[in-house]
Amino acid sequence: MTRSGRRWLAAFGVALMTAGCGSGDALDGGASPITRRPPAENEFTPVELEATLDDLVAEINKKPSEPMQMAVLLKAVHGFFEPIAKGAIRAMGELDATGNVIGSPEPPGDQARDMELQNL
After folding, report:
1. Could you give the CA distance from residue 96 to residue 114 in angstroms, rounded to a whole number?
2. Which terminus of the chain, N or C, has less C-beta within 10 A?
């Protein structure tokens, strides 16, 4: 994955995590706090970005949040969009959110079928 692809994926994850901040008037029985799985350690791990995400999760966990439901609609779930789908699934797991990643499982080609899938 390219550097810009990793940054877009990280930005998408941050956007999903900030959605869990809640409005501040959540009930005391809010959802459980976010627990992040440690990322795979290798020479490409963005250490500073992971530290920022850990700080963000700590801030989010200070206030209870309401249960979330979300859907991520992608053109396809392979090729360019595969890392985005994986990141969205990981973020939903960390946020303990109910959700789905929707997209065509096949390479582009049948636009009518893709439009039908997106309109579900």
Report:
1. 29
2. C
3-state SS of 15-73 is: HHHHHHHCCCCCCCCCECCCCCCCCCCCCCCCHHHHHHHHHHHHHHCCCCECCCEEEEE
Q: What is the pLDDT of residue 23?
A: 47
Percent of the chain at pLDDT above 70?
68
Tokens encoding 60: 């989010």
Query: Who's near 5: CB < 8 A, 6+ residues apart?
Result: 83
Asked if the model's pLDDT at residue 102 lies above 80, the reply is yes
3-state secondary structure of 37: coil
Is residue 26's pLDDT more than 50? no
Which residues, in sequence order, are bridge partners of residue 100? 71
Cα–Cα distance, 12 to 81 (Å, whole number): 12
Hey, how many other C-beta atoms are within 10 angstroms of the C-beta on 78? 15
